[in-house]
């Protein structure tokens, strides 16, 4: 696993993992005790979380893994597989109130601006649209 938004070999990427059992340059292990503490402190322990995944073996497996981690740290997690034909547009539409999803992103060219602005910019948010790349808003 990587710990940064920027992938390895991208300009600006730094090998630093602050959110691992032993913070340093590389991922070492999940710090589940710290995660449980943060969930408790946030007041969200016990809340329901739905993970939307493509209805493929790989995506379902990733979803089940995430479900187990979320359950371990204090949430009530569920995996909802959706047809690959509609999953990406479904997760982009704010009307569907997606909390978490497993999807992929492919770069057009090797620059951070190719996805940082697209995925996180307010200009990329389209409320109620099936084409809102900034899914979180």
- The coarse overall form would be globular
In round numbers, the mean pLDDT is 87
Low-confidence spans: pLDDT under 50, at least 5 residues? none
Q: What is the count of distinct domains?
A: 2
Strand content: 5-15%
Structural class: alpha/beta
Largest sheet: 3 strands, parallel
Give helix and strand order, one letter per element, not per position.
HEHEHEH
Strand order of the largest sheet: 2-1-3
Please work out how many helical segments DSSP would assign: 4
Number of strands: 3
- Radius of gyration computed on alpha carbons: 16 Å
Helix content range of the residues, please? 25-40%
First-residue to last-residue Cα separation: 25 Å
Question: Which short descriptors sum up this protein?
Answer:
137 residues, alpha/beta, 2 domains, three-stranded parallel β-sheet, 28% helix
